[in-house]
């Protein structure tokens, strides 16, 4: 029996706790059936932590995150905390985790599962078989750059500002993740920036170009402006294999790409740090949907993105590819059987809530593992 794997679960706010409950059931099932034992700890983050402990994430939770082999994150935020100070808002939890654990590479796949091809707002023949991977830089750029703030000008007017910054090494390390992934996939990488207007964008492009020529001549590298990329993603998304881009462009383009797949409720993500000398690599897994306060507590949220995030965790943090594939297959089969949460309803399908969707995944896992 393999050594216990330390897993930190942070459900957060809104639909986070509801969808995480379904993952807990998958974990319990694995404990029972597959002889893998996880050491699971759970803690509060986001608004839930603000309410109970006065901060979006506590130092003890940060420490638990550093000690964990992998972190499964839900979602944070909601209208209840909208008027809290900027430095205390729920989103600080995820930003602090990314920054302090140096989780610089956010992998956001956009895959169209066959049974869901009609759930996309795009025509089926445009998205059928889609499988792209967006690598978003996640500890740098304008979300963290200094200086930032709001100042009062001599004429009394105010001025708000943020700064986009990227160093050579910050660009190289995330680009390497993109190149490596492309190598394992179709061998094509598109680097996205705004080199036509941004100095930092031109620098990004030059740095990725030099790295590609020096270390990855076998990968077919091309470049695209971020605005054109947004357009190309809806025009002909299958032209892409792997996309690598900055924090802010990756944030935007991954939300956009998610809708190609039918619903934000379907997409998992992994955020990886550097491999340390000990061999350990910090990693956090989260659905790309937010806390969805409008449907929270109603039992209608789609748990699949959270469950698929757990599958990514098994694959990337624990090398448990077979188990990850089993969970993914269970999800596809359940969708194939016509069960749908409200966000992915289509003609001739049956609407179920969060719990029934979770149960159906468990039943399918039983069948597949039998
Ligand atoms: C995401 C979210 C976060 C981000 C928010 C919650 C800070 O939109 O993970 O894409 O902007 O990075
Ligand atoms: Mg986002």
Summarize the helices and strands and which ones pair or pack.
Layout (H helix, E strand, L loop, with lengths): L4 E8 L3 H18 L4 E5 L4 H7 L5 H9 L2 E6 L16 H9 L4 E7 L12 H4 L3 E7 L11 E4 L5 E4 L6 H17 L3 E6 L5 H17 L4 E6 H10 L6 E4 L1 H14 L7 E8 L5 E7 L16 H15 L2 H16 L2 E2 L9 E2 L2 H16 L1
Parallel strand pairs: 1-2, 1-3, 3-12, 5-10, 8-9, 8-10, 13-14
Antiparallel strand pairs: 4-5, 4-11, 6-7, 11-12
Bound molecules: 3-isopropylmalic acid and magnesium ion.
Magnesium ion binds next to α9.
Textual characterization of the structure:
The chain has 370 residues and is an alpha/beta fold. It folds into 2 domains: 1-108 and 268-370, Isopropylmalate Dehydrogenase, CATH 3.40.718.10; 131-260, Isopropylmalate Dehydrogenase. 41% of the residues lie in helices and 21% in strands. It is built from 12 helices and 14 strands. The chain has a 10-stranded mixed sheet, sandwiched between helices. A two-stranded antiparallel sheet has the order 6-7. β8, α7 and β9 (220-225) form a beta-alpha-beta unit. α1 packs across α10, α6 packs across α7 and α10 packs antiparallel against α11 (321-336). The mean pLDDT is 95.
